[in-house]
Design goal:
The protein is α+β, with helices and mostly antiparallel strands. The chain has 13 helices and 11 strands.
Length: 374
């Protein structure tokens, strides 16, 4: 290798392609101290390989900006790393991972008998005689097949219902904006991803807990119930939910928590709604969330599944992993990925634009594939 540059000065130019063809693989760069320090001594997978896969997420600019990465194996943290300015105590927004928390909140209310899965969703404006939206059920809302008109994203961004609802004309009463939309399809007949659907679910949770329209009372009712029935039992003590001006939980986008607490939520889902043997929400509810919705085998109940998407744009990695893998997925590359067969939970938080997301997901698949089922 040292002599090759000198030889190239005297070899005929015609031989250079041949030399290139018999070159050597580039030796991998040595891992930094920080990269190795991010992985415990015995992580349940090859330590150096895991450290390198974690390092790739922070070092490769084509993947966007990784701010936090956490890997749990059999309930123990085996890898943990943060970008400068972030750390174990930094709450980070979950974006659409918040939807999965909202789904568990609804499951608790169903188990309490306050909501019913297969009856008309109790939105007052839908209950008027002759309103076809009265046929929409809670199950259909959870599975993103309400049939309500919705544009999740658009160019320009301000044309999207999601943007209008969250930050423009609908922001003061997001549920009113979402619930005012007409049907564009027969309820249950079409799958369409919709942040507005999750806002409707959050509004139904508030209505199930209080008759008051006072925003402060609605916030208090939902906040207390969410904290005592879910967040505290799971151990998500850092979690900060946001509410709109009408007192509705912004359950489609704006729940913040540390990477460690997002990992606890993933473990809670991996254990089918139990924490240390205590059942927080009925296991059947988590199984429902993990079951494929009609019209999309890659989506459950506010939860993504490891199966092909009808659109062809994969959210996870069905070609590289078992079908029982599932994930909370949020805007700009937020992930809580659960691999049940390997007893694995992977959390990645950061900022990655859509064109780079597919490559990022494959890097997370690389980490998952270092672990094999026992």
């Amino acid at each position: 290798m040292i002599l090759l540059p000198r030889l190239s000065l005297i070899l005929p130019l015609a031989l250079l392609p041949a030399l290139a063809g018999c070159g050597h693989d580039k030796a991998p760069q040595a891992l930094s101290t920080a990269a190795l320090a991010a992985v415990v001594a015995h992580p349940g997978a090859p330590r150096t390989a895991l450290a390198r896969k974690v390092d790739d997420l922070f070092a490769d600019p084509t993947l966007g900006e990784t701010r936090a990465l956490l890997v749990l194996h059999k309930g123990q943290i085996v890898a943990e790393r943060y970008a400068p300015g972030y750390g174990p105590r930094t709450p980070l927004v979950g974006w659409s991972m918040s939807k999965t928390i909202t789904a568990v909140l609804v499951g608790l209310l169903v188990s309490d008998g306050r909501l019913r899965l297969d009856e008309s969703a109790p939105v007052p404006t839908w209950q008027r005689a002759g309103d076809p939206r009265g046929e929409i059920t809670l199950r259909q809302l959870l599975q993103m097949r309400s049939g309500l008109r919705h544009v999740e994203s658009a160019t320009p961004a301000g044309d999207a219902d999601t943007v209008r609802m969250l930050v423009l004309d609908g922001r003061d009463d997001e549920a009113a904006y979402a619930e005012a939309q007409p049907l564009e399809a027969v309820p249950g007949s079409k799958w369409e991803y919709s942040t507005a659907t999750s806002v409707i679910l959050a509004d139904l949770a508030a209505r199930a807990l209080t008759d008051s329209k006072d925003p402060a009372i609605r916030r208090q009712a939902v906040g207390d119930y969410l904290r005592t029935r879910l967040l505290d039992p799971v151990g998500m003590t850092s979690a900060v939910p946001e509410y709109d001006a009408a007192g509705t939980l912004e359950g489609g986008s704006f729940i913040h928590a540390t990477a460690r607490d997002w990992a606890k939520f993933g473990e809670f889902l991996r254990h089918n709604g139990a924490v240390n043997g205590a059942q927080i929400v009925p296991s059947d509810w988590i199984r429902f969330m993990r079951s494929a919705a009609p019209h999309n085998p890659g989506y459950g109940g506010q939860l993504w599944l490891n199966a092909p998407q009808p659109s062809g744009k994969e959210e996870l990695f069905p070609e590289r992993g078992a079908r029982n893998i599932f994930a909370c997925v949020g805007h700009l590359g937020q992930y809580v990925i659960v691999v049940p067969d390997s007893e694995l939970t992977i959390v990645r938080l950061g900022k990655t634009d859509d064109p780079k997301r597919a490559a990022l997901v494959q890097k997370l698949a690389d980490i998952a594939q270092l672990y094999r089922p026992d």
